[in-house]
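Re-running Pyridoxal phosphate homeostasis protein to confirm reproducibility after the cluster update. Everything else is unchanged from the original entry.
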Amino acid sequence: MDDPNTTRRDEIAAGLAEVERRITGACEAAGRSRREITLVAVTKTYPASDVRILTALGVHDVAENRDQEAAAKASECADLPLTWHFVGQLQTNKARSVVSYADMIHSVDRPRLVEALGREAVKAERRVTCLVQVALDEDPGRGGVIPAELPALAGMIARTEGLALGGVMAVAPLRGDPNRAFARLLELSSAMQEEHPDATVVSAGMSGDLAEAIANGATHLRVGTALLGRRKPFVR
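Result of re-run:
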């Protein structure tokens, strides 16, 4: 009988190899260097053992979207050289917990959240990088600010002690052309960098649209299914 740990490692290694092939191909098509892209493995619903496999395979950026799962997993993997990303919609009452482990928060979309994160980061003596989530379809139900509100929120993050403005994040609209959406995000990012030149992160692209994201300047890809497969959700 096969060792289940060996089998799972092989599955993840195969997924990673295919994702890397896709990223490399998209970079070549866009005239970009692979070194410009950070692959963030979205490990939501998957066990800490998968995080350990990914780390052994050379992936050091991992993301979660629920604090309860993320906090436990970050604690369980505290011995690993990881950068933790939080990518889900975030309630202000979870700010203290998320600030305790997250290095980059991709989903900052309102002033009250900025205030809460800054306050908790100062208490924890941490400096947390924040991305402004932009609603490209202007659907507030999916999180994010409308483009017109981006400059004000970015400025607020930049002025808040304990926080650093890293850039922007968006999810492609459920319907519509991801190329057009990500091109719009790049325009917004470029405009923001005129005021905040260090805010260079463009978090865009997931398993299904990473090539379009790379073609339109993404620096960070949030990939889960293509890396880890569709498995029965892990329940802690």
